[in-house]
Design brief:
Elements lengths: L33 H12 L8 H16 L3 E7 L6 E6 L5 H6 L7 H9 L3 E3 L19 E10 L2 E11 L6 H75 L3 H28 L8 E4 H11 L1 H11 L3 E7 L4 E4 L1 H17 L5 E9 L3 E8 L6 H6 L16 H11 L3 E6 L5 E8 L21 E5 L3 H13 L3 E5 L2 H10 L4 E5 L7 H11 L5 E5 L17 E4 L4 H17 L5
Parallel strand pairs: 7-9, 13-14, 13-15, 15-16, 16-17
Antiparallel strand pairs: 1-2, 1-5, 3-4, 4-5, 6-8, 9-10, 10-12, 11-12
Helix pairs in contact: 1-2, 1-5, 2-5, 5-6, 5-12, 7-9, 9-11, 13-14
């Protein structure tokens, strides 16, 4: 019966040293032949191709090693990251199997622990008389010899392979050499399994990222269409409210209209922020960005969490903003909003029963500092050390473990640095430090513009009649003659038959788009200016227009005065531009 001396033990045996041996020891090589061992080794190598899980493969391996070496039992131990102990994952021992599997071994304890600690293989013959042997509780002290080899990888010892022989038979160096061969095979199987686990995790992570990217792309396209429609509606509301204010003398009615216009403009500002946040911004170049605006936009993006959802659940979050003045940094505004919004959401998660979220800006002439502080559950020193590591999360299944990694990468790309301070139960403070950018000087005095042209002949095309009617009326009230069309095809025909001072066109129209109208206008008359008005206008800058034929773009919704000024500015520029020869 196996006593498992020197293997894994918890307490030392009570066997008396120098015990008399009743029979002489038989040399180990007589146990099994090298040919038999080689045959078993080839059989064991095939386990590397097994589709079984690691535990099943290792169990088959220890059974093969037991048969190949002709020993009483073989046990395989692996080091666990969780507690740093050696745990038996597989054993061929028939007796006391549960005792072996249940008791972990410390590095340095017994033969198993000493081999793991030193990384050197070792034999202990007649282990019942050895002071280096330890005994597993519940197993008897009987004559036994043991040998063990370390399982190694590039990072060090990962486990131990232990063989035991009951009775007075001794192990020889050749037996240990064969156990080393099987140990190398076991190391390879364990290492390949670990790599496969990492590969599977990375593959799943990549699959999840691709799926998320596709979802975001589809949502982005859907959101773009929704933003366009909302901007059209708000544009019509704002335009009609402005027109009615001009035409009424009732002061109370004017106030009501002004309030309606103000509310619609607030909605337009929210849509614009969402457009900026939703569109791709990875390729944007850093530019001077005001931290106060970043904070406002971040709070707006997360408002549904700290206001709407909180109110539904009866939770109160107090939002405190402090600033020592305008702070300008060099960054990509949407990326900074993304980073700060992430910190805000983390802070809210840390305060499930409510609390105070404080966001402050400070710094010196060369440095800007932004801090996000919560009164939440806080973090331990161990959590702080891992918080920026990919896939580490304190939120359980709700967290991806990527939020703060993304925040750190954004800050690093912008030449900033981020750190945090926290104590369990005392909240967390994130501190972001940026190189500051000198604030722009006072704006230059705008020179008075010469009188703008009036009585222009304009072409206006938009497939949305709510916008078409308001814009046409506003331009006509400004003293211009306006030819109105609700489709691009008719507008292109009119351009070829008439002379216009400016073409004003919507962008998204069926069949013939605003881009088509602009190109047709330039083909007919290269100096004919084209102004595009669109609910997608916020997604395009003047630097994106290139050779599209568009001279300027005005994002819906807009003030009617902006429209008039753009039309008259383009007409004036066209009249004063030198003519090509």
């Amino acid at each position: 019966m196996t006593s498992m001396l020197a293997a894994q033990g918890i307490s030392r045996p009570t066997a008396t040293a120098g015990r008399n041996i009743a029979s002489p020891a038989t040399p180990g090589p007589g146990r099994t032949s090298d040919q038999h061992r080689l045959s078993v080794l080839l059989e064991a190598i095939e386990l590397r191709q097994s589709a079984d899980d690691l535990s099943a493969v290792l169990q088959k391996l220890v059974e093969l090693v037991t048969r190949g070496l002709g020993v009483s039992s073989v046990t395989l131990y692996l080091a666990a990251k969780e507690d740093g102990l050696l745990h038996a994952l597989a054993t061929s021992a028939q007796h006391h199997r549960d005792h072996i599997l249940e008791f972990p071994v410390e590095f340095g304890d017994g033969l198993t622990g000493s081999v793991a600690a030193s990384g050197r293989a070792r034999i202990i013959n007649h282990a019942e008389n050895s002071s280096d042997a330890v005994q597993i509780p519940g197993t008897p002290v009987e004559p036994e010899s043991v040998m063990a080899v370390p399982l190694m990888c590039a990072q060090g010892t990962t486990g131990v392979l232990l063989a035991s022989s009951e009775g007075y038979e001794e192990f020889l160096a050749t037996d240990l050499d064969w156990l080393k061969v099987f140990g190398c095979l076991a190391s390879g199987i364990v290492h390949e399994s670990a790599l496969q686990a990492v590969t599977d995790a990375e593959r799943q992570n990549l699959k999840d990222q691709l799926l998320h990217a596709e979802k975001m792309r589809v949502l982005g396209e859907m959101a773009s269409g929704v933003f366009h429609d909302i901007n059209n509606i708000l544009g019509a509301v704002i335009g009609r409210a402005e027109m009615m204010q001009y035409k009424t003398s009732d002061e109370e009615f004017k106030k009501a209209l002004a309030q309606m216009e103000k509310i619609a403009l607030q909605g337009a500002a929210t849509v614009k922020r969402l457009q900026e946040f939703a569109k791709s911004h990875q390729d944007q170049e850093p530019a001077p960005t005001t931290l106060s605006q970043v904070i406002e936009d971040s709070l707006e993006v997360t408002r549904h969490r700290w206001e709407t959802q909180a109110q539904q659940k009866g939770i109160i979050y107090k939002i405190v903003r402090n600033s020592d003045g305008p702070r300008v940094v060099r960054g990509v505004h949407p990326q900074l909003v993304d980073a700060v919004a992430n910190l805000i959401l983390n802070a809210l998660d840390a305060m499930p029963q409510g609390g105070t979220l404080k966001i402050e800006t400070s710094g010196e002439a060369s440095t800007c500092v932004l801090t996000v502080c919560d009164t939440g559950v806080g973090m331990s020193a161990e959590q702080i050390g891992k918080v920026f590591s990919p896939f580490f999360t304190t939120k359980g299944p709700r967290g991806t473990g990527l939020g703060l990694t993304v925040v750190r990468d954004i800050i690093k790309r912008l030449e900033g640095k981020i750190d945090l301070a926290s104590q369990p139960g005392e909240g967390t403070t994130f501190r972001i430090e940026f190189p500051s950018v000198p604030a722009d000087g006072a704006p230059a005095q705008v020179q008075a513009e010469p009188e703008q042209p009036c009585g222009l002949r304009l072409l206006l095309v938009d497939d949305d009649h709510t916008i078409l009617d308001v814009v046409a009326e506003a331009l006509q009230d400004a003293g211009h003659k306006v030819d109105v069309f609700d489709n691009g095809g008719d507008a292109v025909d009119a351009i070829t038959r008439n002379t216009y001072d400016v073409v004003v066109t919507d962008l998204g129209m069926p069949d013939v788009t605003g881009w088509d109208v602009a190109r047709a206008a330039k083909l007919h008359e290269p100096r004919l200016p084209v102004l595009v008005i669109s609910g997608w206008g916020a997604q395009y800058g003047d630097d994106c227009l290139g050779d599209t034929g568009v001279d300027a773009m005005l994002a819906k919704p807009f003030h009617l005065q902006q429209l008039r000024e753009n039309v008259e500015r383009l007409a004036k520029a066209s009249r004063t531009a030198p003519q090509a020869r």
